[in-house]
Design goal:
The chain has 5 helices and 28 strands. With 416 residues, the chain is mainly beta.
Length: 416
Amino acid sequence: MNHSPRLRTVLSCSLLVASLGAGAAACGSKGHPLSARPYDAADQVGFNRTAGDRPLDPDRPLEVTARGKDGRITDVTAVDTHGRRLAGELSADGDRWHSTVPLAAGVRYTVTVGTENADGSPGQRTLSFDTTPAKKVLKVEFGPEKGTYGVGQPVTAELSEPVTDKAARAVIERSLSVRSVPSVEGAWYWVDDKKLHYRPKEYWPAHSTVTVRSGLEGIKVADGLYGAATAPLDLKIGDRVEVVTDASSHQLTFRRNGEVINTIPVTTGKPGFSTRNGYKVVLGKQYYVRMRGDSIGISQGSSEYYNLPVYYATRVTWSGEYVHAAPWSVGSQGYENVSHGCTGMSTGNAAWFYENIREGDIVRVVNSYGDDMDPFGNGFGDWNVSWKKWREGSALLAGTQDGRTPGDVNRLRPAI
């Protein structure tokens, strides 16, 4: 029986291991090809790229080929400036490797090629080259601003250009990372062509930290469009504060970390101005606000018109719904609904509420005759969307059970 040179070498070393025990070290240091320092494989490997001062087109795939018949390629690692590995495919006989995703723009790649000659000895060749910067970039801006928020606060991503293609949206989602400590399940939702929201399946854990990062810089999103660098975002989450206003019983219940710490008599929207039902997220607080009827479509000639100084105002919609001090309706608070849609309470209770609520906390209204809170467009109504429907708003998770799609295979995964 005839053995190839490589097989004879391996067999001879194996026999020495069996017969000499510790003496096998001599075979490993001198005769075993895998123990040798890699030889310079410059003559064995060819690239379709060349090193030099001139940046190269990122739209052109990277190819590595084996020269001659005495060796083959065993592996290829291509890493860019940001530590991201370029996905690729090696042929079965080891004579060719090619990238399977677009190269990043405006980065330097370092390519390390491992080879093996006919005797099984390892070789290596390294090449570095730059790619041309993108002419058109997609910018991403994260929100909210750095700070401490309530457990209901969504993360937002605003794009500088509209993105409608599902594949392009998937590239963006893969490149945007939201992580919390402790870890929770979450997903992005495409609100429109330029805006994404991210939320957990349930609320953020109390006292957790949230880090938001983008690995989109230089990544090809669509033809002629590449990602730009994005400032990272770090958030802290405070206590779990949940407020429920029952419009039928005219009572507001304030819970912190699962414990009821206050119950406040309130008034909500009267017929024709009923307060919206559903989950709302606190958008901000203002000690003083001038509220006018024309801001919600009430003309100055109407008997419903108002122009009032309002204090301790906690905003829950962009259209002007607040929880605030309403000393003029104290006699109705706890008994009937007389407001134009806001939740009113005494000045003392409003001051307490103002001091104990923060942006991102949950304020929910139940048993009102009003419409349901919009999920998007009038504040953060994200929690009115079921988790199943929320997943359908993701380019990656829609139509999946475990969050994985065929497109997740052989993709460029940013190291973020």
